[in-house]
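For the sake of clarity, the format in which proteins appear in this thesis is described at this point. The fold follows as a row of integers, each naming the local backbone shape at the matching residue. One such record is shown here in full, so that the layout can be seen directly:
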Amino acid sequence: MTTEATPIFPKLNVEEEPELGATEIESMCMNCHENGTTRLLLTSIPFYKEVVLMSFSCDNCGFQNNEIQPGGEMAPKGIRISVKIETPKDLNRRVVKSDFSSVRIEELDFDIPAQSQKGEVTTLEGIIDRVVRGLEQDQPVRRIQHPEAAEQIDAFVGRLKDLKEMKQPFTVTIEDISGNSFVENPLAPQPDPNTTISHFVRNKDQNHLLGIFTHDEVADEKPTKPAPIPEEEDNMLKMISEGAWPLEELHGEVLQFQTKCPECAADCETNMKVTNIPHFKEVVIMATVCENCGVRTNEVKPGGGIEEKGVRIEITVRGRVDFSRDVLKSESCDLRIRELDCEVGAGALGGRFTTIEGLLTAIKDQLVESTGMFMDSNDEATQHRMDSFFAQLDAAIAGDKPLTIVLDDPTGNSYVQSLNDDGTPDDALRIIRYHRSHEQNEELGLNDMKTEGYEDA
């Protein structure tokens, strides 16, 4: 009889995880240097992946400190979130920021450098309050020793407090090289017109700051040629010798390789298969099933390169007759449901090969997971809007509500099956090919790509 292992980072749900508890460690107080107590809680929070919540308290002097640190993998790219604050309600937006988040208030030309504050779950108003408290902390001494500097700080604190009273709109920009920061969208699941989110590739120094190094950078000496490993003991992926696997046999073979579960980090196997989608192209389908925690993931990669043109596919979902359409959504494909005014970014659902019904179900599951973090603290209007949206989405999944789904893929690597096999036009399917903009080519890294004469560079 095998015992199911407990995840290292259980979900933050009291009903599902009744035994979720903190670990207590005796540690030194940095205020009075006596012994205090540090409590650690490892959990998984939507939007923020795995986190470590830390709380310190000292019974001797009363000092307390709370921190939050990411416990999972770093995001592949950094994130930049720019929010325009126009109403007092915008100050209540929830914020998750890591240690590597820098905050800038554009109108005041004021920056909070990265690693100057610990990671926390707060609000936009809470960020301003923390800055005010930090500036006012040494003001009594400063007014005696440096009265001119104290007067300037008092004036700047007054400007910060004016922001909280919303005497004028202002913009807050959060930049996080770890990619693990988030600002709440109060209009979810509709897009937020006051928020701009962009991702960027980290440079070498930023990777080093996060502790990310290449093998060449950490090697102390030139690598020596390893001793040959017998083929029966070599479990690493190797290049296929020429002629060993004809293309026809590769299409019919399911390859397996060892990997780690994305949820519980247990050892599991990923199945990979090359398949050909009729009237489209070859794709690589990868599926992972973890026997330890039961999580199932699937991912689709295009077998070829980026197409010459982008593609926009519009599908009119009339009911269950369209639910069985095969859909290939690449990682770079944005999705929109017009009737629900719902937009799902390219990175939200990832690349997947599914059906229209599976796509709608995945959207619902994604939104339920992503909004669950703050669902219990939403105001009545937000709660009503979310309930109304999910009711309409459930009606669409049941086939009772017609929808128009728009897939916009600048790489051209997305596909929706036509229900007419005889080659006649499908009235419910509209495909538009377009030339990518300079910004789209820049995001895909095509503007600086050199495909001819690169040997001379």
